[in-house]
Design brief:
Number of strands: 10
CATH class of the largest domain: Alpha Beta
Distance between the termini: 50 Å
Largest sheet: 8 strands, parallel, barrel
Bound molecules: coenzyme A, magnesium ion
Strand content: 15-25%
CATH architecture of the largest domain: Alpha-Beta Barrel
CATH topology of the largest domain: TIM Barrel
């Protein structure tokens, strides 16, 4: 018997900026950037001989964070090295010590890569809100995307989000970088299907050529059309476009508000379908409409100058 997917969390994850933990200058910039989430990277952007220094940078950075929410709810994620690399175990202990919002596991191949970390968190009695993000960036990861997402719903599992890593996937498969990502789309959509079945978010891959604004715009729009909640970014100049393309568009928001109003009309009580200006709208559209309006509210709350002094 099929089980309904649990309600998806409504979080803003339009722009997910990766910052190499070795780069102290870049770490200092984060407070002034308008991204929804930050990935503090200990993995690919940090050379093996610099891993210890990068961990120390994160310790110092996290201890310097203001206790008042000056960062206005930016989600914080630490990307660790794989446990098989020899660096991952120490990275994971750092995550337990710093308690970011989530750990990002690279090169997740199978559900056990996720459940093993959930178990470690449970054993360490980590707070419930320390979540797990998994990167799908290997051929096995794509093939197992559904099983990995499903592992996220087992009791005690903390999986919250899948991110796609195309640099690794291209390297592993030989698929060349091409506009439109034609040969990659089937795999990207497999990830979308997996997260949709199990109530998670999916984040699109990075775009390396951070000076090519036009191509980046096109890829953001493509990711949005595929169903990604956001895009992983490598450079601050990609934030504005990601927020614009992957956030609620004006027309979609107006439509969502109309759907909510239509179902709120007493005449629609007990109805599962209504006529919205000559178009059928079903009650299932209401859930998506409410998510969109909620996201728009989160964005406007972020833009509003803080009135609290603390
Ligand atoms: N986060 C925060 N700040 C960043 C940043 C990032 N990811 N990337 C660049 N900046 C800052 C730079 O420090 C620089 O600041 P400054 O003017 O005060 O010196 C400013 O933005 C402009 O940077 P720019 O000179 O255009 O680029 P760069 O040569 O400093 O860096 C990269 C280019 C690609 C090396 C850098 O953007 C980067 O390391 N990105 C992340 C890579 C990563 O995380 N990879 C792993 C995931 S795929
Ligand atoms: Mg990678």
């Amino acid at each position: 018997m099929s089980r309904p997917a649990p309600p998806r969390s409504v979080r803003l994850r339009r722009s997910v900026l990766s910052v190499p933990a070795i780069n102290r200058r870049a770490l200092q910039k984060i407070a002034d950037l308008d991204c929804d989430a930050v990935i503090f990277d200990l993995e690919d952007s940090v050379a093996p001989e610099k891993k210890a220094e990068a961990r120390e940078n994160l310790r110092a950075f996290f201890s310097s964070l203001p206790t008042s929410k000056e960062e206005a709810g930016k989600e914080r994620i630490i990307r660790i090295n794989t446990l098989s690399s020899g660096f991952g175990a120490e990275d994971l202990e750092l995550v337990l010590a710093l308690e970011p919002d989530a750990v990002l596991l690279p090169k997740v191949d199978e559900p056990q890569d996720v459940t093993g970390v959930s178990d470690r968190f449970a054993e360490a009695e980590a707070p419930e809100n320390l979540r797990i993000w998994a990167m799908i960036e290997t051929p096995r990861g794509v093939l197992n995307a559904a099983a990995i997402a499903e592992a996220g719903r087992t009791p005690g599992s903390r999986l919250d989000c899948l991110t796609v890593g195309l640099n690794d996937l291209r390297k592993e498969t030989g698929v060349l970088p091409q506009p439109g990502r034609a040969y990659l789309v089937p795999w990207l959509m497999q990830v979308i299907l997996a997260v949709s079945a199990y109530g998670l978010d999916a984040i699109d891959s990075v775009f390396n050529d951070f000076k090519d604004v036009e191509a980046f715009d096109a890829e953001c729009m493509e990711g949005r059309a595929m169903g990604f909640a956001g895009k992983m970014l490598i450079h601050p100049n990609q934030i504005e476009a990601a927020n614009r393309h992957l956030g609620p568009h004006e027309a979609a928001l107006a439509e969502a508000e109309a759907i909510i109003a239509a179902f709120a009309d007493p005449a629609a009580a007990g109805l599962n379908v209504v006529n919205l200006g000559g178009r059928m709208v079903e009650r299932l559209h209401l859930v998506e409409a409410e998510r969109l309006v909620h996201k728009a509210r989160l964005i406007s709350e972020r833009l509003r100058p803080s009135t609290s002094s603390g």
